[in-house]
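User
New here, explain this?
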Amino acid sequence: MILDDKEVSFIKSEIEKSKISISELKDDLLDHFCCFIENELSKGSSFETAYVKALNYICPNGFEEIQKETIYLLNSNKIITMKKIMYLIGLLASMSMTLGWLFKYLSWKGGGDMLTYGMICFLLLFLPMLAINRYKMTLGKALSEKLKIILGFSGAIVAGLGIMLRTSGMPYGTLIVIIGTLIIAFGFLPFLFFRMYQKSIEQI
């Protein structure tokens, strides 16, 4: 049974009332609703009953949830690619630091450069990317959880850069190490143990 123009207009207006902003998704939803309702009408259901069934079947959590899922699927390949790049940088930086330390220990040439470049990539590329990834996972969570991520990674990056500068004999290395350590001691650790305390209370 085919829907008339009035019924199609009603479905379209309901979709337009939602917060869906992707026009292609609106067209796809309209097609899905029309096909589902026409199938239900052929079984003897009324239009109102068929529409409610279609709504519960296609959008059980509302129209907005459909858009969120669509955006996630569209961006999933980009997210996977970014994570591959992030962990590849982390792996290469870690390998460079490890081999650099070994070369320096054995007094081989190039050890210092490998160690330095590895630390730079790890501190200025991998850790910031990892921090952003972890921060996105805390969206919607408590402020203390977000601050724990921000202060923890900030302290680690600052302290790491300070250690690298200090071992290279460059100025302000000691000061930067102290700043990074203070961020960890008085910023990250209090929030870490506060969140651990909160989680332990929630489990009681």
Observations:
- The chain has a mean pLDDT of 88.
- Residues 5-60 form one domain.
- DSSP finds seven helices and no strands in the chain.
